[in-house]
Structure to design on (127 residues):
């Protein structure tokens, strides 16, 4: 198996304002990437920014695992809310497990669970 060649689509449109921080949730939030819940007490990435043509400040909240995965596959800029669409379209069809080297066990498992669902290997009520 060859080394991983997958990376997220490059997006280098600069922002007029970009503030990124890691926060601990005090209430339930929704991850902009996977749509999952960020529960109280969990760490998450919070980004506030103003991008070209935006009417105002936009905020994105990303669960820790999606932020880790996005960081692994992003060599430069990226589009928020596109992580799993790009992984599904470009990584899953010719899955190269070497691509997950360096990820935490939890992030590795999140990709494998999504891949199994995509392949139809995991269904409701099945463990």
């Amino acid at each position: 198996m060859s080394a991983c060649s997958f990376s997220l689509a490059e997006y280098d449109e600069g922002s007029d304002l970009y503030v990124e921080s890691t926060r601990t949730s005090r209430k339930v939030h929704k991850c902009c990437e996977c749509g999952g819940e960020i529960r109280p007490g969990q760490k998450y990435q919070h980004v506030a920014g103003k991008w070209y043509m935006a009417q105002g400040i936009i905020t994105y909240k990303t669960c820790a695992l999606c932020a880790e995965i996005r960081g692994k596959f992003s060599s430069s800029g990226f589009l928020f809310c596109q992580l799993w669409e790009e992984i599904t379209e470009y990584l899953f069809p010719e899955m190269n497990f070497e691509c997950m080297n360096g990820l935490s066990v939890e992030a590795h498992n999140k990709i494998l669970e999504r891949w199994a669902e995509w392949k139809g290997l995991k269904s409701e009520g099945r463990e």
Remarks:
- The mean pLDDT is 89.
- DSSP finds three helices and five strands in the chain.
- The radius of gyration is 16 Å.
- The beta strands are 15-24, 29-30, 37-38, 43-51, 58-63.
